[in-house]
Amino acid sequence: MQTKYPAIVREAALEKAHIFWGDEMGLRSTHQTGTTWGEKGKTPVVRKSGNRFSCNMLSAITNHGRMSFMVFSGKFIASVFIQFLDRLIRHNAGRKVFLIVDRHRVHRSAKVSEWVEAHSKDIKLFFLPAYSPELNPDELLNNAAKAGVSSKVRAKDQSELQAALRSYLRSSQRRPERIKSFFKGKHVRYAQAA
User: Fold this and answer.
1) What is the pTM of this model?
2) What is the domain-level CATH number for residue 153?
3) Could you give the angle at which helices 138-150 and 158-173 cross, rounded to 10 degrees?
4) Is residue 41 part of a domain?
5) Residues sharing a CB contact under 8 Å with residue 163, sequence separation 6 or more, in sequence order
6) How many independent structural domains does the chain possess?
7) Is position 89 within any domain?
8) What is the DSSP string of 56-122?
9) Residue 34, SS3?
10) Where does the pLDDT of residue 32 fall: very low under 50, low under 70, confident under 90, or very high at 90 and above?
11) Could you give the percent of the chain with pLDDT greater than 90?
12) I need a labelling partner for 35 at 20 to 30 A (CA). Which of 72, 97, 124, 143 fits?
């Protein structure tokens, strides 16, 4: 926070790059959040489908309130991450992207490294220290998305869950102040300035 991030900020200023923080998450039909009520002495029951299904999301946010995301099913593998990186580049209209991510094995895979090297004029990856998810503001978006989707919708199948997640993320995308608020947490305040 004292040396590496300030160096990234200086390099981004020189290259006129946008700094994004990225992460991935999974959302399951069995996820329960929030509170409910019940009669005294009786266990509250939350009715939902007995089916188990999930969907996944990749997202990247900036401290200026911008967000890109991709909802997908299946495993998080290098080709999925590369598809997201390609979309992130295209959505930034010719400005270089500096993407700060955790040390997930997919982020550091040979296939991703080769792709990033081939697109080095458009994108550069930086890695957070190991075992430090609290330093990634995008983790706060993940938490908000899980709570926002799970508390409002009891999806009957995977397509409903994906639609609810996309709806929540599009709504957040239209609210830059909401995205900026993810940079106000105790451990991520270092990322507010850039």
Assistant:
1) 0.85
2) 3.30.420.10
3) 130
4) no
5) none
6) 1
7) yes
8) EEEEEE-TTS-EEEEEE-S---HHHHHHHHHHHHHTTTT--EEEEE---TTTT-HHHHHHHHHTTTT
9) coil
10) low
11) 69
12) 72
